[in-house]
Amino acid sequence: MAFHPPPEVPLARSSLIPRKLLFGNPHAYGAELSPDGQWLTWLAPVDGVINIWIAPTDDPRAAEPLTRTTGRPITWQDWTKDGRFVLFVNDENGDENHHVFAVDPRTGATRDLTPIKGISAQIEMLSRQVPGKIVVGLNDRDARWHDLHTIDLETGERELLWQNTQGFASIGLDWQMRPRHARSTAADGGTRFWRIEGQEVHHWMDVDHIDGWLTWPLLFHSDNRRLLMKSCVGRNTAAFSWIDLESGAETVVAEHPRFDIQSALVHPISFDVEAVSVAGPRMAWSHITAQVEADFARIEWTLPGFEFGIASRSDDDRRWIITAHKAEQAATSFLYDRDTGTITELFRARPELDAYSLAPMQAVETKSRDGLDLLSYLTLPASVEGERPEKPLPMVLLVHGGPWGRDVYSYRGDHQWLADRGYAVLSVNYRGSTGFGKAFVAASEKQHAAKMHDDLIDMVHWAIREGIADPARIAIHGGSYGGYASFVGATFTPDVFCCSVPVVGITNLQTLLESMPPYWAGFAEFMYRSYGDPRTEEGRALLAERSPIHKVDRITRPMLIFHGANDVRCKVAESDTIVAAMQAKGIPVTYVVYPDEGHGFHKPGNRIAYIAMAEAFFAQHLGGAFEPFGDDLEGSSHEIRAGAEIFDLAEQPV
């Protein structure tokens, strides 16, 4: 089987962008260079399942599959630091009990390095200073805590490095694979940091609840003495600093007055910081050192209008993999030769979309009702000229998960899909979203279904005032916390949205907190501080007040609910219970469960079926265009457990 170059796509297009081009398997993505720069690996389909491919860097068209898994897709891969193996992690059915696998790039032989049933393995360290080993966290001794083990990559031999009897949420290592610092949660939801010296543990510092979310040790310098730290202690936004662990001296590398520093580009050997990224309305690079200044200038000149990152670098730093995108183009991978200055396109994630007119994305900056700065992103159908439609459109409010995540300017298949069907699409960074400083996160404490939801409603009203949204045709849709927000929209503000589509959402905040995965134990106090404490009467009362399950009788508009049966974060019972309550009250509901998925739908057949059913639902209640089902439900495991009759419109024309 050979890797095919992007197809030659005709310029003619049908009336709609096919769902499978937006949400089916990507053509290729996730390129990584071997340490010597001579080989490329990336992710692409093999018989319909995402696998790892390999090719000489100088001849990508000579690629062959390195793996041939047939179950769940591989979503991450990277080389070991000695270049002997390629690693990936995977679970079986969405239960997040990941195992770590090593593949020999010469033979394709694949080994499970963590063959223990019922565990969740985490790769903790790959180091050029100890190239023949990796460090893996395993929770086989105690499901709540991960002990650290070294694994010899040649033999698979595993040796205990640190037994986590202290209950640390995370343990940091230097490049010699020595535990050097750790993190635990304080009783008030704040964070305690610890210094590790050999087998001795010493208290380092405490930070409060909000500082703890934005304060993290990142990585050591190659000297194993200085630690790169992301921290908002003493400031509102998170800065990057070097901390000398011997003297305690702090040297600030980069900070921004409004936005958190997002990420750092570090040298592959020394780990000197060469550039940092800041995500405001658009992502920008700053603190660009002289060593890479010319490179960044060349990339920006070659790829105007694109946002880009450096995904991989050879050890000699002569070859880089650049990943670039913009709203109208999905991720594209390039090989950059620093000696010649040439930037060569390797592949696009979705080259078939080149035949279609994709929609631009607008950054919108407004104020909440209590004066907070809100940054949102708006996509209108590609046919709309300018920043506003001629008349109000039906709109879908897409709510991001987390809630401690954020929306950014980017190519988004969901925005393009909905805009192509004739909808305005709005994504809001409500309070609690990260990237905007700790005060913005602090403003979300115990504000679920309250001020956090107010931010969403404020932006809906903004879209109505601006002539963007038809107030009678606005839907709310999202996954995880976005699923919770969709349930909240249907119960707390039932007159705002004409329909809702929650995905792997939360309906009962108390059961959410009482059924967290055991290895979230180090995160529990933070969750209690953020949502409400289920161990106290006051906390239980607050959680009940903010839970959609207790307001089912307010639901008056159609609802389509999706869930994965193996979800360990937001258990399927979250959706089961509200469906049962709605049925008991005679409230119509459609409910779809995937027995082989977890917190999201990763198998392409399942993903396409979910999109197809959601699209049919939106068409029925918002009036947009709809691509008939065709065979898009046939490769899916879904079970429609309630309300199947709504999909009778499947064969209606577009």
TrEMBL record:
<dbReference type="GO" id="GO:0006508">
    <property type="term" value="P:proteolysis"/>
</dbReference>
<dbReference type="InterPro" id="IPR029058">
    <property type="entry name" value="AB_hydrolase_fold"/>
</dbReference>
<keyword id="KW-0378">Hydrolase</keyword>
<feature type="domain" description="Peptidase S9 prolyl oligopeptidase catalytic">
    <location>
        <begin position="410"/>
        <end position="624"/>
    </location>
</feature>
<dbReference type="InterPro" id="IPR001375">
    <property type="entry name" value="Peptidase_S9_cat"/>
</dbReference>
<dbReference type="Pfam" id="PF00326">
    <property type="entry name" value="Peptidase_S9"/>
</dbReference>
<dbReference type="InterPro" id="IPR011042">
    <property type="entry name" value="6-blade_b-propeller_TolB-like"/>
</dbReference>
<protein>
    <submittedName>
        <fullName>S9 family peptidase</fullName>
    </submittedName>
</protein>
<dbReference type="GO" id="GO:0004252">
    <property type="term" value="F:serine-type endopeptidase activity"/>
</dbReference>
